[in-house]
Amino acid sequence: MSRTRQSFAPPVMEARRWLAGVDFPPERPLINVSQAAPVEVPPEGLRRAMAEASMDLADAHLYGAVLGRDDLRAEVANQWSAAYGGTIGAENVAITSGCNQAFCAALATLCDEGDEVILPTPWYFNHKMWCDMTGVRTLPLPVREGLLPDPDEAAALITPRTRAIVLVTPNNPGGVEYPSDLLRAFFDLARAHDIALVVDETYRDFDARTGAPHDLFTDPDWDDTLIQLYSFSKAYRLTGHRVGAMVTSPARLDEAEKFLDCVAICPNQLGQIGALWGMQNLAQWLAGERAEILDRRAAIAEQMPKLVAQGWELKGVGAYFAYLAHPFAEGSDVLAPRLVRDAGVLTLPGTMFTPAADPSGARHFRIAFANVDRSGIETLFARLASLGGPGWPLAPDGPSA
């Protein structure tokens, strides 16, 4: 069996197929909350900087360093050192073709076929897909109260073949922000077992907390355990330019370079130029983007009473996501295509974020609200609250945990 047959179809692409043949009248347009990616173009200044680089910089069109442009690596190191209160050098930073590639590169340096990685569930589906396609065994770690994983339960899963624990904060799909002391507990656990802690902080720019979200970089030897992943796509609307980062030890980046040289040779040059310009010029603009996302998060909480009255539960909310438990008798995998037809809402079922045998997936939906403003959120919740009747029977006991 081929490697790709070991995994499932890309969930977002599968969900888009549910739109085929469905008409959305002007009075009820589609509300698409299926994908966590900004759809607006980058700010004009950033686009202009990229356009000028395209015209004026010859190296913008050439192969570059496999680990990324020196100036962008240095800028990440400087800003991260200031933000986290630690010591991070340019030699600790690699620029990748998006954060997904950073994850793939990290696992390539960690795992052989048959090795194990611990993923809290619900998980980010691309992490699971890559493990499947590389022969890495995934150890599911079900989350508990507040959608938070338990370090003690993770410790019980560790075997001699375990190579890493992977955390996403703010979380995709749950939206929750992991407390600093929880990240420290996982860091200490990983170090004690000589495995890596991979922390995907794709959505760090939209964390509701002020100050550093954790203190892991303050450890003088942080890079013997920590691998941090990041995406410029969400902060600067650079999704189509594929620019991400991996922050870890220079020795691990030497290994990652081998992988990256074979799959992309170098990150997109214009995307890197845009990311650097954004980091150096868009702090105030990005603060406004964060404020808007936090306002939408508040709107979710304000609208929830409409759904609570119908038996829904809000399990987590933050960054781009809300994770909702529904009250219906059928599973979310069956109901999600029906939502398109009956409510004009495209969203992803929890089954796309959990193991096939995990019943919790069928009780949940992920709502990605980055492209839905306050008015759209109000309309979304009104449509969900109106569901019922034939085809939408309630479960006897409502949603389960």
Structure report:
This protein has 401 residues and is an alpha/beta fold. The chain is built from 13 helices and 13 strands. The chain has helices spanning 11-16, 44-56, 70-84, 99-110, 125-133, 151-157, 180-192, 233-236, 250-263, 269-281, 283-308, 332-343, 374-385; strands spanning 31-32, 93-96, 116-121, 137-142, 162-168, 196-200, 226-231, 244-247, 313-318, 321-325, 345-346, 348-349, 364-368. The strands form 3 sheets. A 7-stranded mixed beta sheet has the order 2-8-7-6-5-3-4, with helices on both faces. The chain has a 4-stranded antiparallel beta sheet with strand order 9-10-13-12. Strands 1-11 form a two-stranded parallel sheet. Strand 9 and strand 10 form a beta hairpin. Helix 2 crosses helix 10 (269-281), helix 4 packs across helix 5 and helix 11 (283-308) runs parallel beside helix 13. The two termini are 36 Å apart. 47% of the residues are buried.
How many distinct helices? 13
Low-confidence stretches: none
Number of domain units = 2
Overall geometric form: globular
Between the first and last Cα atoms, what is the distance in angstroms? 36 Å
Summarize the structure.
With 401 residues, the chain is α/β, with parallel strands linked by helices. It has helices at 11-16, 44-56, 70-84, 99-110, 125-133, 151-157, 180-192, 233-236, 250-263, 269-281, 283-308, 332-343, 374-385, and strands at 31-32, 93-96, 116-121, 137-142, 162-168, 196-200, 226-231, 244-247, 313-318, 321-325, 345-346, 348-349, 364-368.
